[in-house]
Specification:
- This protein is an alpha+beta fold.
- The protein has a single domain, classed as Transferase(Phosphotransferase), domain 1 (Orthogonal Bundle).
- It starts with a strand and ends in a 13-residue tail after the last strand.
């Protein structure tokens, strides 16, 4: 496995079969783990396709396994970055860490994707799947 991020808050590794393993570390690791799992499950239920899909979670190890959403983006103007994060709002999520480091590019369909939902907020009225708007 290749380590793609190793900070005080998380270690992220990419397996050779394309899965992403994120282990939460440091202050409030359990809280951040629980929030990211909750947000990713919510986004899947409401049909958001430009975020990682949660494949598994391990509360004992504070680790999640997700699909890979592409490669890191090094250059993106501020306006486009804001547009991308705004695309989450109809799905009932505010990212709360809307930085370019949380944008990836998926070559298979030419889509910018968003990652890293440990600080994200599910907006009021979207708390349960039956409250989400249907498309």
């Amino acid at each position: 496995m290749e380590t793609v991020k190793d900070t005080l808050r998380a270690m992220v590794r990419l397996s050779y079969d394309g899965k992403v393993y994120k282990t939460f570390l440091g202050p409030k690791a359990e809280e951040r783990f629980t929030n990211e799992v909750r947000v990713l499950k919510h986004l899947e239920k409401v049909g958001c396709t430009f975020v990682p899909k949660l494949l598994s979670s391990n509360p004992e190890q504070l680790q999640i396994v997700t699909t890979n959403c592409g490669s890191r983006v090094d250059h993106l103007d501020e306006a486009r970055t804001k547009e991308l994060f705004a695309e989450l709002l109809p799905f009932g999520v505010r990212h709360d860490d809307a930085e370019m480091r949380n944008v990836t590019y998926r070559q298979t369909d030419g889509r910018f994707c968003l990652i890293d939902f440990e600080f994200a907020t599910i907006l009021p009225g979207f708390d349960s799947p039956h409250d989400a708007p249907h498309s």
